[in-house]
Amino acid sequence: MKFFIDTANLAQIKEANELGILDGVTTNPSLMAKEGIKGQDAVINHYKTICEMVNGDISAEVISTTFNEIVEEGKKLAAIHKNIVVKVPMIKDGIKAIKWFTDNGIKTNCTLVFSAGQAILAAKAGAAYISPFIGRIDDSGWDGMDLIIQLAHIFDMQGYTSEILAASIRSPLHIIKCAEAGADVVTSPLESILGLLKHPLTDIGLAKFLEDAKKFA
Ligand code: G3P
User: How close is the Cα of 59 to the center of ligand 1, in Å?
Assistant: First the structure.
């Protein structure tokens, strides 16, 4: 399973990248706004910086909602760097645009996926990545992980080549469950990635080893 970080924060991207386990970055308009990035030039420069920092796929989301506008915006984003993946919302014109990008050699990530039916359409259109939002499904009283399990089964049965990119991750346990369920990629905040490191017995064990080491140092 690949590890992406879900942020536009450069310090967090740097920290995750320095761990040596980072395969890519996903962003969205809310995450870009959180960093105070304003204006097209600033957005483009920010994506450029991320692409120079991380050697992997970097999702840049369109903010257009009609076919022609999504295609025009996506072409501009894709021109920023060879590793840019155009992130397109799961809407009718989005599906049409994903098919257009697929036919024209531009990789896409279909975002805001909340059902198997939506994921099947995105796979048929040729999306490189499909992003089910498991945390937001959990928030609404359903089990987001059920969707990952269902998609892993369908994609395997049907031989779809799109990668299941589990998004809206809220905890280290989400990451572990995604690995169990067969997600191809997980994109999570830095906090959830670092949470995987933690175990109290590791801390207790290390403290004891370091204490004992003083006896022969
Ligand atoms: O980037 C898309 C997704 O990961 C958003 O997560 O926490 O806003 O539901 P969240």
Answer: 13
Asked if 87 is an active-site residue, the reply is yes
CA distance 167 to 65: 21
Q: Is 26 exposed, middle or buried (0-12, 13-18, 19+ CB in 10 A)?
A: buried
Residue pair 8/35 in contact by the 8 Å Cβ criterion: yes
Task: Please say if the pLDDT value at position 193 is more than 90.
Answer: yes
User: Which residue in 135, 101, 133, 100 sits closest to 118, CA to CA?
Assistant: 133
**Minimum-distance ligand 1 atom for the alpha carbon of 26:** 1
Tokens of 99: 């098919």
Q: What is the rounded distance in angstroms from the CA atom of residue 114 to the CA atom of residue 92?
A: 15
DSSP 8-state symbol, 161: -
User: What token pair was written down for 95?
Assistant: 């599906």
Minimal-distance CA residue to ligand 1 atom 10: 168
Backbone φ and ψ for 53, nearest 5 degrees, come out as -80, -40
pLDDT digits (tens, 9 = 90+) for 97-152: 999 999 999 999 999 999 999 999 999 999 999 999 999 999 999 999 999 999 99
Query: What letter would DSSP give residue 133?
Result: B
| pLDDT at position 217 over 90 | no
* Mean pLDDT (whole number) for 21-35: 97
